[in-house]
Amino acid sequence: MTATALPNRTDFRFLDRLRVRWAEVDMQKIVFNGHYLMYFDTAIAGYWRALAMPYHETMAALAGDMFARKATVEYESSARYDDLCDLGVRCARIGKSSMIFALALFRGETRLVTGELVYVFADPATQTSRPVPTALREVLEGFEAGQPMLDCRTGTWDALGRDAGPLRQAVFEAEQGVPMAMGGDASDADALHVVAYNRFGLPVGTGRLRQEAPGCARIGRVAVHAALRGSGVGATLMRTLVAEARARGDREVALAAQTSALRFYERLGYVPRGPAFEEAGRGHQEMVLGL
User: Fold this and answer.
1) CB neighbours (10 Å) of residue 79?
2) What domains appear along the chain, each with residue ranges and CATH number?
3) Which of 16, 53, 165, 215 could share a disulfide with 182, CB 3.0–4.6 Å?
């Protein structure tokens, strides 16, 4: 897409889906013009998730933050109540300290609104500009070039437990109130573990694969950084573990899914087996995937 060309859906690697809510419609029965900036801001947050980038942790590690410098919106047509739309976000240019993001809202193939957001990377205390860190520049350019944002590494607990343990503790113990030993449990020593790292080297997801019986594998201890859920990290972990099970000749993979996560596993092809049950104070369902 050239600088002057109007964007199409195919110009965006990242599209954030939204449904227009009643509270966003004005007396003309169309989306109030100011809400499009809210849509833009929400989609930018989704863009960071697509980069497997927990925003606050990453900015703290980079010793900076992103400050909005300019926002423009051009209205071509109106979105209406209950419209299902997709908002594309693309990093269009990276300068010395600034980043320009192009955005466009689509209803189906129809472009409704276009916009541009200009951010400056700056010192969070003084709000004085700083050069865009090389690591951030490379992640943005890599994403737009179609590169993967995750590196999934498999290995033993001795090799990966140092990174897997804190993720488990954050999810199971801090969030869910389930005691989770940092040193792992008795099954960790014989299990195959996976940890997903983002392009900054931060561990953002983990899981393990055990041999429950000949030909039967079991996936467990799946934990994903809270800020990145729904961005594909969990699905990538599951595909990695299933590939390992298939490679060693397993016939099926089983797991005990929390009832709140049933739809996630169903989308990956798992089906329920047996009645629901309770474990650690939470509802669970045995699920299985044939290989």
Assistant:
1) 25
2) 9-144 (3.10.129.10), 151-290 (3.40.630.30)
3) 165
pLDDT at 267 over 80: yes
User: Are 89 and 12 contacting, i.e. CB atoms less than 8 angstroms apart?
Assistant: yes
Tokens describing residue 193: 């573990």
Please provide residue 259's backbone torsions phi and psi, each rounded to the nearest 5 degrees: -60, -30
pLDDT per residue over 118-133, tens digit each?
Answer: 999 999 999 999 999 9
| 3-class SS of residue 83 | coil
What is the rounded CA–CA span in Å between residue 227 and residue 143? Answer: 18
For CA atoms 276, 239, 147, 97, give the dihedral sign.
Answer: positive
Indicate the burial class of 244 (C-beta count within 10 angstroms; 0-12, 13-18, 19 or more). Answer: middle
Residue 79 carries which side chain, given as an amino acid letter? Answer: A
- Torsion, CA 139, CA 144, CA 146, CA 152, rounded to 10: 20
Confidence tier at 3 by pLDDT (50, 70, 90): very low
CA distance 258 to 284: 4
Q: How far is CA 99 from the centre of its chain?
A: 21
Give the C-alpha separation, 146 to 151, whole Å: 14
Residue partners of 173: CB distance under 8 A and separation at least 6? 179, 180
Q: What is the DSSP string of 158-214?
A: HHHHHHHHHHHIIIIIIIT-----TT--GGGGGSEEEEEE-TTS-EEEEEEEEEEET
Coil, helix or strand for 101?
Answer: strand
Count of residues making up the chain:
291
Q: What's phi and psi for 97, nearest 5 deg?
A: -130, 0
